[in-house]
Amino acid sequence: MAFEAPRNAETATTCPYCGVGCGVLAAPSNDGLSAEVRGDPEHPSNFGKLCSKGAALGETLDMDERLLHPEIDGRKSDWDEALNLVAQRFSETIAAHGPDSVAFYVSGQLLTEDYYVANKLIKGFIGSANIDTNSRLCMASSVVGHKRAFGTDTVPGCYEDLDEADLVVLVGANFAWCHPVLHQRLLAAKARRGTRIVAIDPRQTATSAAADLHLQIKPGADVALFNALFSHLSSSSAFDKAYVESHTTGFDAALAAAGSVDMMDVADATGVAVEDLLTFFEWVRDTPRTMTIYSQGVNQSTAGSDKVNAILNCHLATGRIGTPGCGPFSITGQPNAMGGREVGGLANQLAAHMDFAPEDVDRVGRFWTAERMAYAPGLKAVDMFNAVAEGHVKAIWIMATNPVVSMPDADKVRAALQACPFVVVSDVIKTGDTVALADVRLPATAWGEKSGTVTNSERRISRQRSFLRPPGDARHDWDIISDVARRMGYPGFEYASPSEIFREHAALSDFENTGARDFDIGAYAGVDAAAYDDLQPFQWPAPKSETRAGETQNEQHRFFQDGRFYTADKKARFLETVPRGPANAPTENHPFILNTGRIRDHWHTMTRTAKTPRLSQHIAEPFLEIHPADAADLGLSPAALATAKSAYGEGLFRVQISRRVRQGEVFAPMHWTSRYAAAGRIDALANPETDPASGQPELKHTPISLSAFSAKWFGLLAVIEEPNLSNAPISYWAKARIEGGWRVELAGGRDDADIEEIAARLTDLEPNAEILEYADTKTGALRRA
Ligand code: SF4
After folding, report:
1. What is the pLDDT of residues 47-86, one digit of tens each?
2. 49, 109, 181: residue to mutate for ligand 1 pocket, most atoms within 8 A of CB
3. Burial 12-35 (b: 16+ CB within 10 A, else e)
4. Which of 201, 303, 343, 735 is 20–30 Å from 12 (CA)?
5. pTM beyond 0.90
């Protein structure tokens, strides 16, 4: 039965998982270790709906694994000692080796106020732009595509377009699993008004199953597909000549680069049948209200930026942008990737959607009264960890993210951090793969304890509000960063609350902004603490001329309705996009293509979702999805184990045999860490090749080899207490929470310990414990309770 507590017993906040940004009402239990959670019916992004992850938020609030006190070299410390050490070591490193010898690696899980202060400290006072965010792995290619076409990083549309479109094209987006509340909204529109859905994805997914047409495209062939669509549209009735002439430049060159549409060539390049291509082209041609939604399948590629521009070219050629029910729409994976883009969380941005043009550096410097502005972009994520490995970066502060699991070539990242002279990690938990490598561990507040704002994929800024007291010594990220800044002797960090930071952030967006910058929330520059507490979700832009602090903004904002863009001549740019394949093609040694992504019920590196039995049981082990013909060739039966190797790393996974993937291609989830599996960190295998314009890694395409793992024995363990498997002498284990305890899948290889030894070790029984045992020497079966 739905929880029906009176609204005044609940706190209105925002889900911390994905870029949909659903409003949540949370009522904590008396002990503060759980909460009743329901969707906020008044939040305009979800109108009361939640997906499985959001609905389980209340089950993830316990104190297991929480980092509760500052630690130095693994011993308990206090804030004074820890922050003095951080300030001292960063100051000494900068003095000895210059500002670029230090770096911050931050996160789309931070709140905007945390992000703002981190960016201000390093870019305005340390004098380096070496701050990058895990959003680099998520949507950096979309940022580049937007800026090249529009002059700014602007998402033109809003979620309401899903209700008003006649055709929705989902490109590289498993919408049903990764953005479930929006997918449900789309399906409701389909039921109501017959919206057609096209899914473009190398895999069959829950999203493609609900689509009218699935183009099971070859990995990396998106530019070839959208170039062909662009050429087709440009010689069809859908071409909007007047729009192109009045509001764009570069059309002729882009069309010439796209080439002619020989359908056999397009079919060959994309792997899609001519018939399906023609259907797709005709549907787009004949549907003015066409919306193209794209996500990681587009962005996580060495051609990600060009893929985005190939899509944007199609919308510009048809003038389908900025009006209801149409337009390109980049959907972000992380809860606050958009907020990070607003404050300059990426190394190649400054703040408030400004870049490193001299006038921008000067403007931000004057606004901050900065002592030492950064004048040039800093290191993007992959380059940053390479610089750590090479010894150029000698002190790094990692906040709210787990790069030892999520970065490509993740073993190299681990080795780099092991060798780095000074590593600081701010986190909520003490068990992460990255936290384990920190010299200084700083306990941060978690969802439910934090307070600030986040921005979702439709540019809607919402409050995350606290409804729990911070445990132990945990402090807010903005407070920790500001304290270090003060200890380093910098002025301008005397914040007492997130509302002060938000005011400054809003004021910067308005500062000398005469309409040349899209990001403008000047209407909120004067918001006081009470109005900030009561802040209702609103979409930007919200310039000063529109006073809305404390009010709900009902109007849906779309950009570019007037056909004016943020380039010098106010015209959008077509881009010449030429198809190119992924950086590393399969070889004889690595003949399979590894694609990575999310599953329905886990979030990032599972730090929160793995706490709940409900979410852990959807898929309890790291797996490889492999085509039946490949499985047969490799001698793999259903649920067997397979070793996967790339030129960078290896892992051991459960096999799922399925026609959802094409022959020669393999899919694996990105979530598992060494906390939950012996060898399930898939990004240890992922190649670190990046898009030359965006720096986004090609996480969707790594050549790998596969081989059957020859197990001596298999085991299944159900226990009440969590077993410690970190040094168990067996090749395979994967553990997941179940009601009342833990379930562990085990397998021993030829050289591993015997099952008897493992069973005795893991169950750790009292000497006189009563044991029920069934053993069959013929089959080798052993059951013990
Ligand atoms: Fe909404 Fe995303 Fe949270 Fe699900 S995970 S409730 S879709 S914000």
Report:
1. 999 999 999 999 999 898 999 999 999 999 999 999 999 9
2. 181
3. bbbbbbbbbbbbbbbbbeeebeeb
4. 343
5. yes
